[in-house]
Amino acid sequence: MPRFQVLTNPDAEILVMDAALSRVARGVGRLVVEMEPGLYKVKVNRAGSLREQLVELQEEGTEIELRVETFRAVAPVAAMLSDPGAVNALGFLATMAGHDVVVMTRQPLELSPPRIPLAGMRLFRWGDTRGAIALARSEYWRQPGPSTQIIGDERWAVNGIRLTEGHAETFILEMRRGGRVSRQPVLVSPDWQTRIFIGIGGKKRTGPSSVSIQMARPHSPLVYQRGDQSAEVTRIALTKGRTIFLGHDLLEMLLSGKFEHPLMGIAGLHLFLDAVERRKAGDTSYDPEGVAKYFDHTPCELIDQVLINMTRLLHPDRPAQAGKDLVFADPDQPESADLTALRVRAGRIAGRVRIATPPMFRASWDALVAAAAHDDRVWIERSLWRVVGQAGAIAPYLAWSPGKRSVGAMLTAIGKQVNLRIEFSQTLSKAAAQLAPFINPADPASWPSSLTEKLLLPKSILGGNPPARPTSRRR
What we know:
By secondary structure, the chain is α+β, with helices and mostly antiparallel strands. It contains 13 helices and 20 strands.
């Protein structure tokens, strides 16, 4: 049969449909298949931006190239900027001055009235709001203040700050938009510069903001060139649940650890684990040709190598250990909750682990909560649950509104809701009385495990003894 080859961006999805618009082939980055001659429709999806083309497959075979160069990005991508050099120049001092965090905002000129750059935004260490730093103020940087400039049809602003004490820490980004306040975790790690890109949308000052958080080497340009764009594409893919980490090039990037964007590694491994779990469940409909080896022969090796790479990248202060010792969580070495979540998903925890700080990604939090509801080896601190237990999301990131919630009051409310559902079901079916007995809302410890696991309630908030705290003296 004729050979049909489609080439596109390494992080773009390829879909081929026949004349009846039935899917006949899928892939990522590059697709090579043998099919009957005829008319086909090729669709390429990159971060939500689409390109389509009708192709007639000839007897001698057909090869096409269909790339997507622009997509809806929050981070500054060169191909989508009117003046990439001006954006890099604006952020030059922030990236070069030894700052641990760089915050850059962009807002359309039509925003009326214009929002004061970085107004309503502040950063503080997890659990330390008294030490919050207002990003619109200048004295913390000993600079004239946030640098601002009109570039094209947008108003840009950038500022930077030193935060860390030589080890990875979790900070909280707070954003106020009118009467709404959101908070979300931001990981800051030695040897890396955390970059927070915020796009202010809408025509009002209270309009929604889009956020992209990345890590890059200090002194590297802020604007993404072609080789860096996959970091932003991966963020969008995790938001939309698109399993793009099946393409050969992206998998090799994960395996080799050559990427220069650690947060892309976290999001990418989440997406790869999604594919592994889907395949274990019997769904192989999205396995591009040529990558079956990663699932059939080397998934464990790939996952372990990525975990080793990510540990070394995010925690360079971790005592030197043999590679395999970095695969499993070390209870004596505090680490990013996102990294712990990946170990949990991959089954790489040997003992009990404490989760005392929130992860950046919503996928990480979901994985930790699901595990904590079934296995008391994953222990989510009650103090963390009081703040984050009912959190939502901003794109792929975990986010919540300020305030602490009573765990007891929350469980009592859940118990009452469960009893209401039981009572309602019993009015419909007498048999339900035997299958769903009432529970005591005031005594969650007595609830059956089948119920608490279904409700995704961590065992740590139901009672029990926590694991020992890490012996490390680091924060």
